[in-house]
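Quick check before the chapter quiz. The format below is the same one you will see on the exam, so make sure you can read both the input and the output lines.
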Amino acid sequence: MRWPSGWPDREPAGAEWAPVAARKLHSVGVKRPTAESSVTAPAPLRVLLIDDGAHRVALIRDELTRQGHEVVGVIDSALTVHDCVTRLSPDVVIVDSESPSRDTLEHVATLAGNNPRPVVVFAEDDSDEPLQRAMRAGVSAYVVAGLQPHRLASVLKVAIARFEQDRALREQLDQAQSQLSSRRVVERAKAILMQQGKLSEDEAYRQLRKLAMDRGEKLVELAERIIEAHDLLHPLA
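Here is the expected output.
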């Protein structure tokens, strides 16, 4: 074998052949990843606290701060929660309560509909009624029987994961409903073309697709315009 110009004719005596990848890492000074370098600390959260009568928010606030999170506000009534979320943009809302009142959960439900955030409720009441109301209001985690600061990180993690899962399911449902609605619109427009043009179902659908492509429109948008025109010309149809 001929070596490129300038290379030694053979490996120096006594040299050991290391794997190519290992030699490359050594030559460029690349450090091998370690367990410590691959672990990233969780991102700090912006948290809004609601004192709903249990008066333990100071303990929660201190533990959140110790964990590196930012408490963006502490309010003593859920009445202003929507405005505070809009203004302060917290990542998580925590409600500290002996037993969450109906008014508190109603405001939480409004938040879930208009400006959704993961909501954690710490409560002492383990009866079914407030728990069920909290779940219907969109609460992501309902923790009963004692506030244990060392569990706060895991509770927040679970609440955020459930919130993200629920949001993904809602988005999938919304998409499915939108697709179903679009399909109904296209089906009605197709029926109009079949009736007026004496076309078969396949012919009407092909005509719809061709018109949409020629005009650079979405199929459902063209179908809506066909229906609108039909309804204007045949209001009693």
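If your answer matched, good. The longest helix spans residues 152-197.
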